[in-house]
């Protein structure tokens, strides 16, 4: 009996290690995308130095910062379709191709036009988290799905921190060469992970899916709602799938969630960190504080992982209230010491920014993307994820592009007050509208949208 239990525990450990290996390999792309997010900040900071031979005006700099987000929706649509058609694994591999090309161009770039072209290409993989969230949702045990989901956000944070650290020692051309080599390594690593068994079953490749399940060492129930294909007994046009309640309702919820997430201001701080610190009269060095923000993001991601036992509605309240309070502290401090050249208690302001980033990582930033990977039927999952996240990145582009104008017209205090208010609205959205998917199987989640039964998904705090 003891030997049986020992063998069972050993098999379970091997199974978990295999899943962890696959999740880490799949999420490595997000580390590189995290580097891409803040590359414009490090690039522009180096180009502003007196020793730089390449000079840019403010308009050119804003395009370099935002253009990747503008083209991201195109990449999202393509990635979403490919995810459904050729599988999650191959779609992730294809994501690496524009990464490699863009970093290679930046290695040799010596003009504004060359940098802009590279940043355009760099934007196509920005939304590839669609693939990662779908893959993780389809290979993870229900109880551990939240833990593995948090890996995506954690790797983005690690990428941001890696970028800031490397930027301290490398010129942006050399830094691009390092990231290009890492992208090639990531492409190769994906070869060693299996395809999602749920996607394989949806394609009728049942034997292959069974082999993958056996390799993972997981016993899975027959796939029903989550991996079902349209019944062959009913001849319905493909487009009618998108009119079903199981599709349009989660589309509305995730679209609204992403809209509120983008207006919480977290990505503005990510793309304009040095400028925001300057406008708020932060006394600490902008680059050093940006690195601390990256550390706060990683710490928040790790904390989110350890809080996986908490209900997601609870996490949204903690995240929204904490982020809002932190930003209001920044606003009040800035108003009090607006006309002071060297304001006192500078650590209060720096701590508030760090706390704001930390609290965002507990819910506002990761949960909308996670929800997108859970709520759509298998037949349209990739396509609808691409469509919904396209909307999210379009809003992100608008905010990043409009933020400098907002500050000029309304001031930094009013702009940050708006973001703080929307952080609170995120909490309310989490309590009253966001479905509670923690601990629910994918079948339970999808059944909720199909049958209109609560199944615990609408329970409040």
UniProtKB/TrEMBL annotation:
Keywords: Membrane, Transmembrane, Transmembrane helix
Topology relative to the membrane: Multi-pass membrane protein
Subcellular location(s) of the protein: Membrane
A GO term for molecular function: transmembrane transporter activity
Cellular-component GO terms for this entry: membrane
Keyword field contains Membrane: yes
Stretches assigned to the Major facilitator superfamily (MFS) profile domain: 22-438
Spans through the membrane: 20-43, 63-82, 91-109, 115-135, 147-166, 172-193, 252-274, 286-307, 314-336, 348-371, 383-403, 415-434
Pfam families referenced in this protein's UniProt entry, alphabetically: Sugar_tr (PF00083)
Protein name (database record): Facilitated trehalose transporter Tret1-like
Organism: Sipha flava (yellow sugarcane aphid)
Organism taxonomic ancestry: Eukaryota, Metazoa, Ecdysozoa, Arthropoda, Hexapoda
